[in-house]
Amino acid sequence: MRNFTFFKRLSSAFGDHGSNFKLVLLCTTVSGGGVLAYGEAVGASEAAVPEKKKVVVLGTGWAGTSFLKNLNNPRYEVHVVSPRNYFAFTPLLPSVTCGTVEARSIVEPVRNIFRKKMVDVQFSEAECLKIDAANRKVYCRSNISNNLNEKEEFVVDYDYLIIGVGANVNTFNTPGVTENCHFLKEVEDAQKIRRTVIDCFERASLPSVSEEEKKRILHFAIVGGGPTGVEFAASLHDFVTEDLVNLYPGIKDLVKITLLEAGDHILSMFDKRITAFAEDKFRRDGIDVKTGSMVVKVSDKEISTKEMKNGGEVSTIPYGMAVWSTGIGTRPFIKDFMSQIGQINRRAIATDEWLRVESTSDVYALGDCATINQRKVMEDIAAIFKKADKDNSGTLTVKEFQEVLDDICERYPQVELYLKSKHMHDLADLLKESKGDVEKESIELNIEELKTVLSKVDSQMKFLPATAQVASQQGIYLAQCFNRMEECEKNPEGPIRFREEGRHRFKPFRYKHLGQFAPLGGEQTAAQLPGDWVSIGHSSQWLWYSVYASKQVSWRTRALVVTDWTRRFIFGRDSSQI
User: Fold this and answer.
1) Packing angle of the helix pair 555-571, 538-550 (nearest 10 deg)
2) Which segments constitute the EF-hand domain (predicted)?
3) 572 Cβ partners below 8 Å, 6+ apart?
4) Which of 29, 105, 139, 176 has the most C-beta neighbours closer than 10 Å?
5) Exposed, middle or buried, 278 (CB in 10 Å: 0-12/13-18/19+)?
């Protein structure tokens, strides 16, 4: 029994500290004695383990969450810093303002998103105060107060920094906007608007309020005729006409909704057919659409507007609640970061086509806080010509051009857009156009002729819109790049480096537009899909339902959103202030 206990203890010790033992003991009973054999064993843990690169992700919006969901390389140690510990499905915020969907239904805790991943991820609920690009440090302040009611500050080091913090609301320095208007960027904004709408109806129902004051209180003004402003106006109209009129019958005829837009039309980024239908439908629904009206001042009870067409006449509009939904601005610490790296007087961080911040090697920016600075063809025309002219003849043949055509189109997407606008298949057709009736095979161009041919290509360059769709695709793209970082270092898969030797590690980011929706109320939605396909009506509304349900980040939120829609169809919208 004593021998058994000894071997048990020895086995346990060896199992717990196997990597530290260099002796293997083998004891047997031989002629009443013991035989001791020695041998060396090297533990597996002594093998060299590559050091993990530390990736800091700022923000849990569309860009940051898409990056986290798709990052699968265990060689990274990820630290997420965000003032909110959840992801919000922002396209449904207008639905939250009117009780169509509950706020809890469109949010998903970020820890649920990455808790089952093989990647080591840490989360800190804090806001970024400053980025020190020179020393690779991020200065943060906790959102949670300690016992002394103070918020702790800390510093996070990084090897790679992913900036996906979105943007602030742009007030264009209009007096009174910050103090008197509601915004619609966060879940808290939508909840506050919902409470204010009900407050307005309750205040207008008080017997001591005059008729004139009731009209003012029940006048809802929306500034901005973009998708968010239009959808909120439509949602509010449905909420009032389908639900609140039954609860407040005595004041239903006093409600007024006004949509103010400085431009000539609402939904100017959509097809003209959608714009015309939306304006006509709003007028039929009784929503007052004022185009060409720029807001110049907002007080606690009135909005001052300047007419863009009638000689700049200024007029005032009394209101009970105002929602500001126009433009995006830069966050203060992003402005400071841009000044550090020489990007001054910009609205957003400039990145290259691989989402890497210009003038840095280890910082990436995506989503609303960044914009891709697409390189122009004419900036590299000499390098392109030299790379294609392999025989150094001083002229380019069609064959020589075709050999680098794919790399040119991949590196400069405006080339492909220009060819499509001209209904051409490839650059050979463009070369032939410049030479008239000459056969393709016999075409030769010198560098000056090539400059003439490609002189208008850069006119097709376009900035990407600040939408959830763009941010989501950028997050997925960057995660895929990080997943294959080591592989692509050895075997680059990107286009030719025209100014240098070799190839780029990755293919540049390419945005694929999947379409856009504009809910117009009354179970009607306008849809503009790829291929210039426009659909308006009830069928598009059901398409909207299916797409927005399928795009939820979890089955939990998907089930909750569908349940909310079903509840609304059966019982109506929730008009409580909770």
Assistant:
1) 150
2) 376-411
3) 242, 243
4) 105
5) buried
The pTM score is 0.87
Angle between helices 427-435 and 398-411 (to 10 degrees): 130
Task: Give the burial class of 480: count Cβ atoms within 10 A of its Cβ; 0-12 exposed, 13-18 middle, 19 or more buried.
Answer: middle
Strand stretches in 148-307, DSSP E: 151-157, 160-163, 168-169, 219-223, 256-261, 288-291, 293-298, 302-307
Give the residue carrying structure tokens 């857009």: 417
Contact 302, 318 (CB under 8 A): yes
Q: Alpha-carbon distance 428 to 6, whole Å?
A: 84
Distances (CA, A) of 84 to 87, 114, 125, 137: 8, 15, 6, 21
Interatomic CA distance for residues 196 and 219, integer angstroms? 12
Q: Which residues are CB-contacts of 248 (< 8 A; sequence separation ≥ 6)?
A: 201, 204, 205
Measure the CA–CA gap between 332 and 79, rounded to whole angstroms: 22
Beta strands, E only, 274-387: 288-291, 293-298, 302-307, 314-318, 321-324, 328-329, 349-351, 363-365, 370-372
pLDDT digits (tens, 9 = 90+) for 456-480: 888 878 889 999 999 999 999 999 9
The answer to whether the beta carbons of residues 355 and 478 sit under 8 Å apart is yes
Q: Which domains does the chain have, with CATH numbers?
A: 50-167+330-374+462-512 (3.50.50.100), 182-328 (3.50.50.100), 378-455 (1.10.238)
Write out the DSSP string of 47-72.
Answer: S--PPPEEEEEE--SHHHHHHHHH--
Q: What is the Cα–Cα distance from 304 to 367, expressed in whole angstroms? A: 33
Structure tokens at 460: 């097709």
> Could you tell me the two tokens for 175?
């007096």
